[in-house]
Amino acid sequence: MPLSQMRFACIALAALVLAAPGIAPAQQNGLAARPPMGWNSWNHFHGKVDDATIRAQAEAMVSSGMKAAGYTYINIDDTWQGKRDAQGNIQPNSKFPDMKALADFVHSKGLKLGIYSSPGPLTCAKYEGSYGHELQDARTYAAWGIDYLKYDLCGLRTVMKDAPTPEAANKIMVDSYIKMRDALRSTGRPIVYSLCQYGNDAVWRWGTTVGGNSWRTTGDISDHYARMEQIGFSQAGLSRFAGPGHWNDPDMLEVGNGGMTAEEYRTHMSLWAILAAPLLAGNDLSTMTPETISILTNRDVIAIDQDAAGKQGDRASAEGPIEIWTRSLADGSKAVAVFNRHPSPLSTEVDFSKLGFSRAVKAKDLWLHKDLGTISSPYKVTVPGHGVLLLRVSQ
Ligand code: GLA
Questions:
Q1: Which of 73, 146, 214, 237 is the most exposed, having the fewest neighbouring CB atoms within 10 Å of its CB?
Q2: Whole-number mean pLDDT of the chain?
Q3: Does the Cβ of 122 fall within 6 Å of ligand 1?
Q4: What is the C-alpha end-to-end distance of the chain, expressed in Å?
């Protein structure tokens, strides 16, 4: 057995042992024990992504300290695809002269390379999809050295629309994700499998059975507080579907793209950490301000997202625009986030006895990087407009 396959077999075996209760172990590939962290080209560059962009982002991921903070994947989104050759092999377009050389470059930085396709004939941006070429494409990705695939439904809808019933259409969709799961697996290369079908048909209920390491739960994010807020806070109730190897994905980060205030980006980052969401930065890493870097690389917040227990957090209470979300952590402590969805500052009181603690707790403020010592309920706080107080709390 070649080394790569042996490695894959060991990972698969570990997955059998570690599989979360209720998850069919055979569907897990042993990857993404923690939510994937990295960068994706779409939110900032859209169709204007090329080989040079990817190299620059990889270099910036290292030089900015993002890599040291845990970010690993450099993911090329839509618009890299060219035509197929006479044998049907997918070719990159002229923006990506040599995908294998690009993968080698990214790997030489200690990072991993991700790519994008669709189960349909065409992608969302109308580039070549994998329909009818799943195995061939998976083999091509493996030969290039790809480590992550985002598989985006879009173009398959043209096939699904001819199905006689909505159930039959959903079956086409589910089968298409199974087909690529099996194709990826057959290559023997560990490739994170990221489903993107915007939460259709409650994907969180069946995403693991088609081998998803993550699945988008919503439509696309944009760089506006209202959209980020709508997506992020709509995740209440989904926590039980996520766990090591299989994560809910409320879409990529917009931190640093300029459409929100620093306060709003801290809310974005805090909420995604509570949600155990993949942290895929979506800004230009080569031109980040110190403030953007400090938000994206906040070690205490990343530690919440990446907590070893892999238990997604959820909403504990909502009183008007003040929402408290909590997440249980491996060491017995909890992340407690007090969000203010109102545009102006609001004062409130936190009663830790309602969050599973006795009245007095030890706490650290994860944005101020300040140990608060012992604090007692009711704990009076003022939260900035659209802002957050994020605490790590223990008894
Ligand atoms: C969809 C996805 C986005 C992005 C674009 C690319 O809209 O949800 O994240 O991948 O397609 O065309």
A1: 237
A2: 94
A3: no
A4: 51
Paired tokens of 322: 């003040």
- Give me the residue spans of the domains in the chain: 3-216, 314-394
**Nearest ligand 1 atom to alpha carbon 219:** 8
| Number of residues written out for the chain | 395
List Cα–Cα distances, 148 to 47, 109, 193, in angstroms. Answer: 19, 16, 6
**Ligand 1: does its nearest atom lie under 6 Å from the Cβ of 196?**
yes
The type of residue at 66 is: M
Q: Could you give the maximum distance between any two Cα atoms of the chain, in Å?
A: 71
DSSP letters, 158-209, are: HHHTTSSSHHHHHHHHHHHHHHHHHHHHHH-S--EEEEESTTTT-GGGTTGG
Predicted confidence at residue 12, as pLDDT, reads 42
Q: Decide: 152 in ligand 1 pocket, CB within 6 A.
A: yes
Q: Which helix (H) or strand (E) holds 38?
A: strand 37-40
**Minimal-distance CA residue to ligand 1 atom 6:** 78
Out of 3.30.70.270, 2.40.170.20, 3.20.20.70, 2.60.40.1090, which CATH number does the structure's domain 3-216 have? 3.20.20.70
Is residue 244 within 8 A of residue 33, CB to CB? The reply is yes
pLDDT, tens digit, 9 for 90 and up, residues 306-325: 999 999 999 999 999 999 99
CATH of domain 314-394: 2.60.40.1180
Q: Which residue has the tokens 């909403």?
A: 315
Residue nearest to atom 3 of ligand 1 (CA): 220
With the most atoms of ligand 1 within 8 angstroms of its CB, the residue from 124, 195, 197 to mutate is 124
141: helix, strand or coil: helix
Task: Return the percentage of the chain with pLDDT > 90, whole number.
Answer: 93
Q: How far is the CA of 335 from the centre of ligand 1 (A)?
A: 31
Q: What is the pTM of this model?
A: 0.93
- Residues 252, 152 contacting (CB under 8 angstroms): no
What is the set of active-site residues? 152, 220
Ligand 1 atom closest to residue 251's alpha carbon, by position in its atom list: 9
Q: Hey, what are 390's tokens?
A: 């994020």
pLDDT value for 244: 98
Q: What is the pLDDT of residues 340-381, one digit of tens each?
A: 999 999 999 999 999 999 989 999 999 999 999 999 999 999
> Rg of the Cα trace of the chain?
21
pLDDT over threshold 70, residue 24: no
Residue 26 binned pLDDT confidence (cut-offs 50, 70, 90): low
